[in-house]
Amino acid sequence: MKQASFHLAAVVFSAVAWTGFALPEARADETCNSPYTSRLIKGQEHYLHVWTLGVKGVGDGADKLVTIDSDPASKTYGKVVHSVSVGGRGEAHHMGFTDDRKHLWAGRLDDNKIFVFDVGTNPARPKLIRTIADFASKSGFVGPHTFYALPGRMLIQGLSNTKDHGGVTGMALYNNQGQFIQKYDMPKGVAAIGGGDGYGYDIGINPQKNAMLTSSFAGWTNYMMDLGTLVKDANAMKNFGATMAMWDLKAMKPTQVFDVPGAPLEIRWSLKEGDNWAITATALTSKLWLVKQDAAGAWQAKDVATIGDPAKIPLPVDISITADGKGLWVNTFMDGKTRYFDLSDPQAPKQTYEKVTGKQVNMVSQSWDGKRVYITSSLLANWDKKGADDEQFLRAFRWDGKELTPAFEVDFYKLKLGRAHHMKFSAKASATALLDTGPLKLAAASR
Amino acid sequence: LRAGAAAAAARRGAAGLALAALGRGASLAARSAGAIALGAGVFTFAGALALGAGSAWAAQLEPGKGLVKPPRQDFVAPPAGSYTLPVIQQAADGWVFDGNWRPRRLSTYTHGALTLLSFIYTYCTDPIGCPLAYRTFVDLRERVLADPLLRGRVRFVSLSFDPSHDTPQAMRDYGGQFASSNELPWAFLTTYSVRFLKPIVEGFGQDVDIELDAQGRPTRTLTHMLKLFLIDERGQVREIYSVAFLHLDAMLNDLRTLALESPPPSLARRAPP
Questions:
Q1: String of b and e for A56-83 (b: at least 16 CB within 10 Å)?
Q2: Residue range B56-77: average pLDDT?
Q3: Contacts A33 to B, Cβ<8 Å
Q4: What is the pTM of this model?
């Protein structure tokens, strides 16, 4: 199934002789922050942390975490207020908060390093406190992609493996102190549950259902290859994921595999009370897929909508669901469009808005109230567009339900920062103090 | 999870006067009644439980009922023993006080039995904070005592975040009848000071901050994320439950899964009083 679906994709890719085009990627917004464990920001986000790919000859050339002031009441609103380089370039990609939102884990897909930043002490000035370098050696996986918080630990989805750098991979579990706990292989050829291609990409958890859903993308060989070369390589184009898997979260065992052709990427569960569905977008086939329980309680996956004209490969790369589960932002990399789908009936999403927000757009994140939407530009270092189309930015918009209105923009090339990729929100720490700075300390001092 | 609504209310005038009257020396019943009289949802959870039958508040707080709602569980928990629980970390250790002011190592409460431990503070009234931890323990207690595999092998520990207010006596009052019950050991512990508490909190990876007022001054409201730590007989943390994961069926099967790993030790010999 996987190979068949990519035959079509390969043809289309070949037809589009793009120099700097790309495949999927993405994730980030308040509604995707493991909402079952984190303290979500339901008011004004004060800072945006952007995991940024270093570019040779641009600034210090190193990957870095860039912090932008997003508080309209601040004097530095819309400005970069802090940047911390981690050294080298290793294909900086995605990030995830720990369950208590004190730390931000950021991964690199090439050298497999994971950087842990303290964002709880002073979110205006994140501090690198730990580098985890044993992801590949301990798990056998390559490309730490999704960082999904569980209580006291971090579940990390790999994209590849150390043996052949293909797409067969798995998940690694670490505790919050950065120690490896265990690994879990993605299902592959398990007939009893519907097969599986062994590929991985994103993780989405619904504790109420004891359900964990995973998606699938491609291995190191593909995501590190120049895109122009990749799309001309028929064999390489067969090596993309075409499945999603449902897991028993408590047992950490896959229970069902769904055929979802075209590289299903970001997974978003509806956060509305009582809802029993998740949605994803397929990069190569440009579809929205719904995974929902039927009347008998069985999980079913269904193609429910088309994004743009699949023949033109709009390449949906990130989605952001509203807090009430009624709407979905979709970014399509190739045409630089940000689309909005009405999800009132998740079985039949309808596009109600679109706007070109950049020459290349990747991540889209919205605030909890849905009034602010943020967009970044970079997909992968070797897949981003070339020349004048290689814009690198973070753009902030206001959304009134009808129109996206620019709020501010940060030009990452002009500021010599690099390629803007994944973003996360944080709020000022001024409302709280550490345990040993309050009255308890004063009381203790009298003893 | 925001905790400490009572303390916040206490700073707001009349309610504060009433709550302030609930000093350490006040009787448990008086403290509870006073807290309930504050209205606006402010109450002393453990105290209300201890009021006994006949009280409308107590009735609402009885296991299986009430204001404090556990998360919805829309699944059948996988059978005990059909899965494994990996070792997440070693349980932290340090000096604590039991209810009789006796200093003990926390490790004596995290070894030799299947232990569920949670950090709390007695005046926390956040419905999805400490009261929910208490409610979960109470509900689980009934199930454990009714389970032949688990009865005699399980211990609960409630350890205070606030050594300045939660003295051993206060913790004993908070525990009420459960603090002295021999059916299922439930230790209500505190520490001498923050200096002793902090390494334990950090060792477990339990976050806690002190809320500041509008002038940036620290208040007595503690913010923390509710976590229950499941610890095996060797002192290893095998599962951590935050609010969304407080599913009683699954928690009971987790306990049973650990119980099936080894033959039952003599809890009576090894567990602290």
A1: eebbebbbbbbbbbbeeeeeebbebebb
A2: 62
A3: none
A4: 0.86
